[in-house]
Amino acid sequence: MMTSAMTARLKPVQPGRSSLVTVLDIGSTKICCVIARLVPREGRALRGRTHMAEIIGFGYGPSAGVKSGVVTDLDKAEQAIRSVVGMAERAAGITVQSVVVNVTAGRLGSETFSASVSLDGHEVEPSDISRVLIAVNDRSVRDERSIIHALPIGYALDGQKGVRDPRGMVGETLGVDVAVISAETLAMRNIELALNKCHLEVEALMATPYASGLATLVDDEADLGVACIDMGGATTTVSVFNEGHLVYADALAIGGHHITLDIARQLSVSVADAERLKTLYGSCLQGQTDETDVITVMPIGANSHESPNSISREMLTRVIRPRVEEILEAIRDRMQATGMMDISGRRFVLTGGASDLTGLPELARRMLARNVRNGRPLGVSGLPDRAKGAAFATVAGMLVYPQVCGAEYVQPRPTRKLTGSDGYFAKVGSWLKSGFM
């Protein structure tokens, strides 16, 4: 629910002022921590990129105790997080106390809620905005799930949609549509518990598909309609943007590591060798010379005296392609079931570490019947060379998040006062100003 501790505690970065932010990407195959100084940007940039990220600390290492975004071993997860965060702290020369962390676990999903309130013909005031958003909150609260993001995507006056900023307008009824992204509370609590064992506080939880979209999409794509598919190690997430807003997010517990395991099982090689084969020779589509191209592989458990086996590249492709098709079919079916294929327009963007697989854009183009391109982090400078690829799109998106999180709505706790310069209505007005200016 919006009043729970799962919603963002992160304060939006102020225009013209610098700020420090620490982001932590907890994946199933890797963990990455970045400490950055957000410096006001001069000149033209992508929408929402008011600041430039100067990386002062970077830590990267293998994941442990995490499977498909879910914490499965607290002790192992704690050690892996401590190692990576410590690496970034030593590089930056500071001690981290709180982090922005991504969320993929907990059956991540989204719904659009609508609500309306009566205006009785008077002008729309911040109190009316707060009333209609609270009405959305009352409809979306569920005991077993917590809301991560609540993003207003459009207002309506007297049934007329498309109102971007209703303040000062008159009407009888004010309505709002809000995209609500939620996940299971207990799964997120375990992530928070692992971080607390590392003496770290959660400054904000951010949905992985939202972060990937912020990092890789250009403004025109987000306005016209686009879907961003982030293919990670053990999860694949999808986000849909339309009219500049995130309107849909989903996650599948299948990723690039499942392709690696398929190769290891069917070719009887070690997981490390299977990963090497996938990276160096793997493809989703068969080439003209694949039947004659021979790859030598060492059987699992073989000693140095045994001769390696030989396979054709065509055989490797026949192992890889079914799993990739399974992922793309699952995404297509879910989006068609929710009506998001039409809202996403004619374009898909692929990102994440597994998106580097040869032939993936071409196969996705055939199966999804849409234009497809590979996405890389945009609008974030200063990342290390090894962090500029698609595998680090989530990290880059989390660095953008403090610049755009002011557009979200979080209901203040009941103990806060309602009037005055720092009261509830004043803060809602400040939120409106930052969200619509």
UniProtKB/TrEMBL annotation:
Keywords of this entry: Cell cycle, Cell division, Cell membrane, Membrane
Predominant localisation class: membrane
One Pfam family it belongs to: FtsA
Location of this chain's protein in the cell: Cell membrane
Listed InterPro entries: ATPase_NBD, Cell_div_FtsA, FtsA/MreB, SHS2_FtsA
A single BP term in Gene Ontology: cell division
Location of the SHS2 domain: 21-216
SUPFAM superfamilies assigned to the protein according to its UniProt record, in alphabetical order: Actin-like ATPase domain (SSF53067)
Residue ranges the record marks as coiled coil: none
Membrane topology value: Peripheral membrane protein
Keyword Secreted: no
Signal peptide: none
Source organism superkingdom: Bacteria
Quaternary structure annotation from Swiss-Prot or TrEMBL: Self-interacts. Interacts with FtsZ.
Similarity comment: Belongs to the FtsA/MreB family.
Physiological role: Cell division protein that is involved in the assembly of the Z ring. May serve as a membrane anchor for the Z ring.
NCBIfam families named in the record: ftsA
Name listed for the protein in its UniProt record: Cell division protein FtsA
Organism: Pelagibacterium nitratireducens
Origin organism lineage: Bacteria, Pseudomonadati, Pseudomonadota, Alphaproteobacteria, Hyphomicrobiales
